[in-house]
Amino acid sequence: MIDVLNAISREAGACINCGFCEAVCPTFPASGYKASMGARGRINLAKAFLEEVGRGGKSRLAVGDAFNSCLSCYACLQVCPAGVNAGRVSDYMKQAIADGNFLAGRQEHPVAKMIVELTMRYWDPLGLRKECAEWARGIEFDGSSSTVLYTGHMYQLMAYNKKLKELLNGNMKLMSIGSAILSRAPSLSKMMAGLYDPEVRRKMEGYLRNVVKLLKAAGVKFGYLGEDEPYPGTLLLDMGYVEEFRRYAEKVVNLFRERGVRRLIVVDPHTYDIMINEYPKYVPGFDLEVVHYLDLLGSLDLKRGLGSVAYHEPCHLKRRLDYDKPLELLSKVAEVRLPLHNGRNTMCCGGPDEAFYPGISDNVASIRFKELKDTNAARIVTACPICFVNLDKDESVVDISEVLIEAMGGKA
Question: Which among 68, 47, 65 has a CA at the least distance from the CA of 5?
Fold first, then answer.
């Protein structure tokens, strides 16, 4: 943890307090311009936290909401003249919050421990590994292949995430009660199996089936682990539970090795990012090949003429990986119109705050949705399930797999 304190000091200490980051931080206006909910405010709060810890070993500052609400979109880094990443400061502070040794009282989010315990025990943040495999019923996979489709549960969990957001809706008392129950008896997570948005589930399962159709049409052979497929542990790392993530990531890699998996075909930005950028840091000898499914579609005969689309570039694809394959493919089949904030200056959709801080998330999503609608494109296209759920405010919003299926003639 001392290393984390030094990391906070190095990153926050370079800040010149110019405030350029406040102009692009999505949570600053979404919170009503509350100082601690903006990039510069978080930097200043981190400095105050370090001062208190330096004086007395612990801080009494309320830092939980300020840093847990950070979207870690890293928009701040793109405009900072000093090269400071306020989002990275939030990442480090989340580690300090999760550890708790430098705070006078626990300030972790009420559902954080629930997610950690369920993930560690059931390989899924809501204990829904069986439910996350139901989309694949009736699909034939190549069980002998060392290449597997790895969904990471991201598309599947969105239907439950949306319902959970509606249920909790910022009710901290309800979150605390639910967290306490599920943490003591994780088997009760089965109650979550019935808490999903049926329309979102239908769409998400359809998009995953689209991915399978596209890959098969491109001649790719692959398996799928079904109910044995593990969640990648993204939320553990996002919430600052670094040691828990380290142990979990090693379990995930060992599972893949035991099943003879050598290559992962991933389908969403968060799983792609964590497997490419984080797993090699935390798992000694990590040697799995990771490829995004869009990179395997080069042989497809895609027809142009699908009208106009506004493409929302996910933060984890563009900023963290500089990955432009979605834009490249869309440009082949439609007229692509980019919104005001695009490229490395793309704007966050509001995730992953949707369940923890729904008010802030909704405000961010509404601003981004308006930007996309202002392009006057016929449809809004995403390449991320989290972005889809946050931006899904009318029928114009679709996943990129839907557009590519249409470009193939509507069938594989």
Answer: 47
3-state secondary structure of 228: helix
Task: Say which residue the tokens 């949705």 belong to.
Answer: 369
Question: How many whole angstroms separate alpha carbon 64 and alpha carbon 93?
Answer: 9
Which pairs count as long-range contacts for 129-134, CB under 8 Å and 24+ apart, including other chains? 129/153, 129/227, 129/228, 129/229, 129/230, 129/231, 130/227, 131/156, 131/160, 131/193, 132/156, 132/157, 132/229, 132/231, 133/226, 133/227, 133/229, 134/205
Q: Spell out where 159-278 has E strands.
A: 263-266
pLDDT digits (tens, 9 = 90+) for 263-284: 999 999 999 999 999 999 999 9
Burial degree of 393 (CB within 10 A; 0-12, 13-18, 19+) = middle
Q: Is 305 left (phi over 0), alpha (psi -120 to 50) or beta?
A: left
Average pLDDT, the chain: 90
Question: At 381, which helix (H) or strand (E)?
Answer: strand 379-382
Distance of CA 218 to the CA centre of its chain: 27
Query: How is the chain split among helix, strand and coil, in percent rounded to 5?
Result: 55, 5, 35
Each residue's pLDDT tens digit, 352-395? 777 788 889 999 999 999 999 999 999 999 999 999 999 999 99
Phi, psi of 13 (to 5 degrees): -65, -20
Tell me which CATH code domain 2-99 carries: 1.10.1060.10
Residue 344's contacts (CB-CB under 8 Å, 6 or more residues apart) are 78, 318, 319, 322
From residue 64, how far is each of 21, 46, 49, 236, 239 by CA, in Å?
20, 11, 12, 16, 11
The pLDDT > 90 percentage for the chain reads 79
106 CA to centre of own chain: 25
The 289-292 sheet, strands edge to edge:
147-150, 263-266, 289-292
Q: What beta strand segments (E) does 84-192 contain?
A: 147-150
> Residues 185-197: what's their mean pLDDT?
60
309, 403 Cβ separation under 8 angstroms: yes
Look-up of token digits 């490829």: 291
Inform me whether the pLDDT recorded for 189 exceeds 70.
no
Higher-scoring residue by pLDDT: 202, 176: 202
